[in-house]
Amino acid sequence: MSTESTDIATPRVPTSPSGDGLHRCTWCLATPDYVHYHDHEWGFPVDSDQRLFEKLCLEGFQSGLSWYTILKKREHFRAAFAGFDFYQVAQFGEADVQRLLQDAGIVRHRGKIEAAINNAQRAIEMVAQEGSLAAFFWRYAPAKPSAGTDIQAQTAESQAMSKELKKRGWKFVGPTTMYALMQAMGLVNDHAPGCVTRVEVEKAHKAFKLPQ
Asked: pLDDT per residue over 100-153, tens digit each?
């Protein structure tokens, strides 16, 4: 099995009613934190470079772990990594690495910490080359909308994105990790048919303007 992991468990299972009588994707019903994340974040289109960078970093830290572990630590990560302002993170040096390795509020893994710093530097380069991170990432949104019925761990689009990012020197950006980012940031709508949030995400997509 790959060391990468996605936000949601695969294979896909049908939606089930939650305590409020609404149908949601079954993966989110385990905890109230998941329900809130599912209802208000997962799948809604994002064009903020800072949020895209944050998610990419957190997906890297999640590698080999559950998303719930990262979600519970997210505020600690934000405090530790300057709100994921990649212009600030790009300036982190060895003293910052040592500080982060002592921070029990995050995942203390030198390779992942150094990857986040490296990726911040690559993000600055990407903004100079592409105009924004959003312009690059949204280039890989599939032309055909997802039906939400047969969720894969990776797709041709996530493989292409991963390949290009690696070529540009990014780290912890495998195709499964990149597909998790695509799901979470709304490049695809993988909410199951019948899920109450799928409709809301579809509305958000219709109003969303692709980054140029």
From this structure: 999 999 999 999 999 999 999 999 999 999 999 999 999 999 988 776 666 788
Has residue 5 been placed in a domain?
Answer: no
Question: 3 in a domain, yes or no?
Answer: no
pTM over 0.85: yes
Is 179 among the catalytic positions? Answer: no
The rounded distance, in Å, linking the Cα atoms of 212 and 196 is 30
CA distance 86 to 92: 10
Is-catalytic flag, 41? no
Catalytic-labelled residue, pool 67, 138, 140, 170:
67
How many domains does the chain divide into?
A: 1
Q: Give catalytic status of residue 27 as yes or no.
A: no
d(CA 31, CA 2): 25
Domain membership of residue 1 (yes or no) is no
127-145 as b/e, with b when 16 or more CB fall inside 10 Å?
Answer: beeeebbbbbbbebbeeee
Q: Name the active-site residue from 27, 37, 42, 140.
A: 37
The active-site residue out of 27, 59, 157, 179 is 59
